[in-house]
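Input set for joint prediction.
Command: fold jointly, output tokens.
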Amino acid sequence: MSKEATTTTPATRKWLDDLTLELRLKDVSGRSIGDSLATVQEFLADSGQSPEEAFGTPREYAAELVGAEIRPIKKDMKSTVSLSTANLVVFLVFSAALVPWLEGARLLLGGWQLAGMAFLAALVLALPLYLPFLLRHFWALIAVPVVGGTAGVLSAMLAPKTAGDAFLDLPPGPVLAISAGLMVIISLAGTVTALGEDPDPVVGPLEATPAKTLKARWFEILTRWLFPIFAAVLLGLTALLEALS
Amino acid sequence: MSSSPEEPWPADWNRASLGLCALQALAGGPTYGYAIITALENAGLGTFKGGTLYPLLARFETAGWVSVEWRPGESGPGRKYFSLTPAGLHELDRQRHQWHTFTESTTAFLALPTDRGVSQ
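tokens >
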């Protein structure tokens, strides 16, 4: 294999992607990651070796680099996770109140339904504890949303049919309005937090840092508005189904 | 320039001497990772991996012993050159002196007659 070819093979690209992931999991800055990737590519082009031969596994090499005091950065993961969890719980309340509101009925919440919501919230809240495991194992990345989705469906199926079975009996209109308002407030808070943080893209050592424009960060901002967007889509679809039935 | 030994040096010896030898390889002026490894190999000091050298050089950078400069290459991501700072040069002198003292002591100890116990 030629020296040039060793840096461009799919196996090498996979190794470099895995190294990027491992360094991200260790809170290494995008600039330092770009430097490490370029160094590896330079060495592989010079030596003609495979990445495993020259550097071991991505996980081992990332640990060596972080041990060598490549400076980690601090990102405020807690506030991001807290806001996402709060928005998820509010979204679940919104979706529970939607159908009773459209049908002019009362919002009835059962004990099992509340337990399902609490389980989903706990799943998201504990995300920082198992995020590295999820990202390293594709099956787990699929399994967690499936478990979460199942909990959501079960919670909807276990909704009480009569006021006597309900743990909580509420008017759906105010609940819907308050939960919609809260989702917008939480998304606004998330947007302000996101814009307050410096973006941290992986940048090569000889590349300029990308501009911090809104256009360049639209996707990051969009993720902060997912729950209000889902809520609006859900409202539209449910209203349409109610009108057709 | 000496040839490689028939048998690889014990890994512990390589680990112990790599830092000092890498500083020495930088004493001639700015150079890059693969050139350092090639120089050490040509000197008969053994074969080193990029995964061992670069974290060491990162430690030297953190300690202020080396400075780093990326230079554009004809293709690819460019080349990372390392050069000794005045603090690195001072460290090289200090470690070189220590190494000579240590190896002299080791050599003298190994030359002791073997028919006498060390407890005397």
